[in-house]
Amino acid sequence: IIRASGVSLGEFNVEAYITDNDKVFVIEINPRQAGDSIPKLIFEHSGVDLSKLLVSLSVNDSSYYEEIKDKERLCNYITLQVVFPHKSGVYEGLHIHKGLKKYVQWIDEFKKIGDYVEVAKNAEDSVAYVCIRFNNRTTQIRYTNSIEEYIYPIIT
């Protein structure tokens, strides 16, 4: 279906039904973006603006697609850390290790200092997103293998 559309780059939401015999029936396919800043992170990683691509293709304008389809992609080392509280108490802000601070691109805090937070039970209990851009894969792995030692909420 995607090949038949002629578009090899972009975002699609596919709803399908799979039978006991492994036959796939597509119920719906439409352009739709993911949440959690994913289009923004993809842009920072690759240089492709999926929001612009989605909107332009939705109105039958393929000029941006034609502009980028054969363009060499960036390959930046981006990590999005979703910060969760591991204990209940008063949120006092984020701790970000001094060695990691130079790599932080942006922070989106969902809680204010002084807010009471509960131990995280699911994805909506996060207190912040921290976007980190590393200059190489080795550094990225060194920090992300134990990221919660470098970034965590201060809870009193």
Question: What secondary-structure arrangement, pairings included, does this model have?
Answer:
Elements: H1 2-5, E1 13-18, E2 24-30, H2 38-46, H3 50-58, H4 63-68, E3 77-83, E4 89-96, H5 98-101, E5 104-109, E6 116-117, E7 128-134, H6 137-144, E8 151-155
Antiparallel strand pairs: 1-2, 3-7, 4-6, 4-8, 5-7
Task: Describe this entry's structure for a reader.
This protein is α+β, with helices and mostly antiparallel strands. The chain contains six helices and eight strands, in the order αββαααββαβββαβ. It has helices spanning 2-5, 38-46, 50-58, 63-68, 98-101, 137-144; strands at 13-18, 24-30, 77-83, 89-96, 104-109, 116-117, 128-134, 151-155. Strands 3-7-5 form a three-stranded antiparallel β-sheet. It has a three-stranded antiparallel β-sheet with strand order 6-4-8. A hairpin with a 5-residue loop joins strand 1 (13-18) and strand 2. It is globular, with a radius of gyration of 20 Å. The N and C termini lie far apart (53 Å). The model has no long low-confidence stretch (mean pLDDT 89).
Give, in spatial order, the strands making up the sheet with the most strands.
3-7-5
Q: How is the main sheet built?
A: 3 strands, antiparallel
Sequence stretches where pLDDT stays below 50 over 5 or more residues: none
End-to-end C-alpha gap:
53 Å
Number of helices: 6
Helix content: 25-40%
Strand residue content? 25-35%
Structural class: alpha+beta
Q: Mean pLDDT, nearest integer?
A: 89
Radius of gyration: 20 Å
Shape: globular
Number of strands: 8
H/E series: HEEHHHEEHEEEHE
